[in-house]
Amino acid sequence: MTTFILSLSVLLFFHITIIHSLYTSNYDPIFNQIDLFYGTLDGGHMFPGITLPFGMAKIGVDCLDATFGDAYSGYAPGGLITGISMMHESGTGGSPEYGVVSQLPFTSEPWQNLGLRRINDNSDEAVVGVYSVSTPNIDIQFTSGERSGLFKYIYHDDDDTVKVMVNASHHLEGPGRPWWNQHFVNGSVETKDENGYVGYTTISGGWGQQDPWTVYFCGEFNHDFKNVGSFKQDDYESDSSEVSSTTQDESIGLIFEFDQNDLNNGELLSRVGISFISTDQACSNIEDKNFDFDAMVQQNQQNWKNEVFDKFEIEDQNQTLVNQFYTNLYGCHLLPSNRTGENPNWPESAKNDIYYDDFFTIWDTFRSLNPLINVINPTRGSEIIQALINIYQYEGYAPDGRSANQNGKVQGGTNSDILMADAYVKKLPNIDWSLAYQAMVKNAEVAPPYKYDSFAPDASTKEGRGALPDWLEYGYITRNYTRSVTRTVEYSYNDFALSVLAKDVSTQDDYEQYLKRSANWQNLWNFNATAKNLNYTGFLQPRNADGSFNSSTYDPLSCFGCYWGDDEYEGKPIEYGWSVPFDMETLISFYGDDADADDVFIQRLNDMYPLHGSKIADVGNEPSFGTPFYYNYINQQYRSVELVRYIMNTYFKPGASGLPGNSDAGAMQSWVVFSMLGLYPISGTTTYLIASPFLSKITITLENGATVQIKANNLSNENIYVQSLKINGEDWKQNWVDHDTIFGANGGDLEFELGDAPQIWETGERPPSPGHFDK
Ligand SMILES: *[C@@H]1O[C@H](CO)[C@@H](O)[C@H](O)[C@H]1NC(C)=O
Ligand SMILES: *[C@@H]1O[C@H](CO)[C@@H](O)[C@H](O)[C@H]1NC(C)=O
Ligand SMILES: *[C@@H]1O[C@H](CO)[C@@H](O)[C@H](O)[C@H]1NC(C)=O
Ligand SMILES: *[C@@H]1O[C@H](CO)[C@@H](O)[C@H](O)[C@H]1NC(C)=O
Ligand SMILES: *[C@@H]1O[C@H](CO)[C@@H](O)[C@H](O)[C@H]1NC(C)=O
Ligand SMILES: *[C@@H]1O[C@H](CO)[C@@H](O)[C@H](O)[C@H]1NC(C)=O
Ligand SMILES: *[C@@H]1O[C@H](CO)[C@@H](O)[C@H](O)[C@H]1NC(C)=O
Ligand SMILES: *[C@@H]1O[C@H](CO)[C@@H](O)[C@H](O)[C@H]1NC(C)=O
Ligand SMILES: *[C@@H]1O[C@H](CO)[C@@H](O)[C@H](O)[C@H]1NC(C)=O
After folding, report:
1. Could you point out which of 257, 362, 514, 760 has its C-alpha 20 to 30 Å from the C-alpha of 292?
2. Ligand nearest to the CA of 471
3. Residue 496's domain spans which residues?
4. Where does the record place the Glycosyl hydrolase family domain (predicted)?
5. DSSP state of 12
6. Is 717 in the pocket of ligand 3 (CB under 6 A)?
7. pLDDT tens per residue across span 601-630
8. Is the domain of 335 the same as that of 295?
């Protein structure tokens, strides 16, 4: 324990120092407040490399570090750098994906199994727009555009050889989960003129069990090479300008050598473009024109300012909190990736239709990440929805998980439905809503084709609702299917989402049908179920087809393996019991009769977290994201405020170890951002629950030009409790607010008075249950 704390503080210190060293006076001070290494350790799996908001190129170091384990985003703080590659995911679970299209500069070391050691562990430095790492013989820097990158290698010693390896087989490995490992399928690389190369790499496997997919690349150096040779496995051929392979897992590539005398101060630059269409498109995707490294860094930073940081203005004395806000905000803008014009499988007529990939996964992001983007960045939000609709149109189903141009996997429901409802009620522009509704109906009515998954052979996990036949026949998922509880709860939320659109774009019958189906979670509620040491009864419970509750191995406090083959996926029955925010009214009524339902509600919610109870809910995982805020539903909002503060202070820290679980494509960061704003969205509805802000004043400029101001008067470490609230100048007595009131055409103005005494200040209506359905 002591060692851990010690190493953590060393790391923190180190990264802060580092940011200062790269933070030369050229960069805007905002970039000094963002820690790119946040959440890279202890299972956060964050990608600390360089990209643009939702950029296709995500350039970072790929490391082999036995003590770190599988490097999901390529990065590990120590070990060997085996390549610097162009594509990564960020913060994911599952298994490592991508890590393709790599370069590695080297000098005279043996080329076999090449890997560079850093001058010392944790010597990587990064500021938004530029990454740098020092090895004994070469300093490496890189920056990124949308679909290309620019590398700068500074070779130290005049006498050294100057080489660059282009390993066309390179990809991230996941030895910890070999069943989901990626494999090299085939590829080739050849020289282009006297200073470049083109080629492609085909990869299969990974978490989504992808069929082979191909990425094309095009590289150029700012000097002609002196020699080029090729390698295949352990054989090296000098004066060879091309190599290819169709043998699985074979290692192939080119090694370029340059004349040290040609270089200026030992500097060699290389620009690389990538494409899913062709090597020509990869070449035309190269953005740099003059090997101008600084200009590309500045362009990258300007894009981040324009799209993200210039929209926020913060006034607060506590720099730790300000940095935490901006750092988490950054992490909300990495996935999915804008691949418009880069889908090789769509018809010619659709080739420029909007396309995003790397939904990793919507299961994680639908609760708070997509609702955040829909507020602060509706242009992106809209493009993401358009992409989902286009994927449905050209491939059959909108995805839940997706990478490498293929859907997979679905952990629970078809949560793209909730994204569409959220976008709809927030009035995102440029979306064909009847087509969106069609995509949702496909999920709700047409079982997907079967694709074998050894972890869950019962039904497809690629797309759609695998357990749909049970849903339609019984109104819940029986134990004949895996993840029966998770699927039942999520299909309910999904059908609620359908009802939201059906109301306007379809018939009254459809609206009523889907609203009714959204109540199906109630079918798994066993009023008689008990849990050890808890003095209340009634929990979700797996149910057999004959209507009996299955009690042979049931425990509301356990999900056993909590995995693909179990009744609940990554959450206990008691946690999933809270996952119906569209109808809290019914849930509360299930907790008891009117007289004591509120007390039981408090008791049940208190029991979930160590603040009052024990560690039942996993704060680091998505099914329980909303739960801490739900005291609002019984008008005791101060309890939500206390619990959210407790969770933030206990589990979320600055620094590389700052996330209490996988970032999950930024889902976790979006929870932090909303918590700090003092709001929590109920996805697919217009409701925000109100907690209390962490910063004295935040001003957000919306895309429509209006501003949203959130002011917390009298805020301090102790003064966290709302005493009173004004919204748009009026006394506000509800602990929730509607989207249009604060994020609409006129923006909004929230002014909190905070103090150190808990108050029940809300005398108004409780938060709505727009999906309320009394069975
Ligand atoms: C090329 O990449 C593959 C896959 O990552 C790796 O197994 C192989 O060792 C690399 N080859 C060299 C020469 O580094
Ligand atoms: C590479 O693999 C893909 C997928 O299996 C295949 O379609 C393609 O024809 C292969 N290319 C070569 C040159 O064998
Ligand atoms: C800044 O905020 C952090 C996190 O809430 C807190 O621990 C720290 O005490 C605050 N610093 C000051 C000077 O108030
Ligand atoms: C997504 O990429 C396409 C193609 O490069 C581009 O036209 C579009 O503007 C991008 N979207 C955003 C929001 O920047
Ligand atoms: C719950 O228990 C009561 C009393 O023992 C019984 O009448 C009822 O049928 C039970 N309900 C279910 C769903 O098992
Ligand atoms: C249940 O137990 C809690 C303590 O854990 C106690 O405060 C509460 O009064 C009990 N409720 C009932 C109905 O017995
Ligand atoms: C459950 O699955 C088994 C085996 O596939 C099948 O024989 C049985 O009819 C199914 N039961 C129900 C209720 O669907
Ligand atoms: C519970 O489910 C298991 C597995 O599906 C089955 O073997 C068992 O018979 C069921 N028990 C009851 C009481 O229905
Ligand atoms: C500010 O907080 C203090 C407690 O620290 C409280 O006594 C005071 O009433 C608060 N001021 C207002 C205006 O709420």
Report:
1. 257
2. 7
3. 309-690
4. 281-756
5. H
6. yes
7. 999 999 999 999 999 999 889 999 999 999
8. no
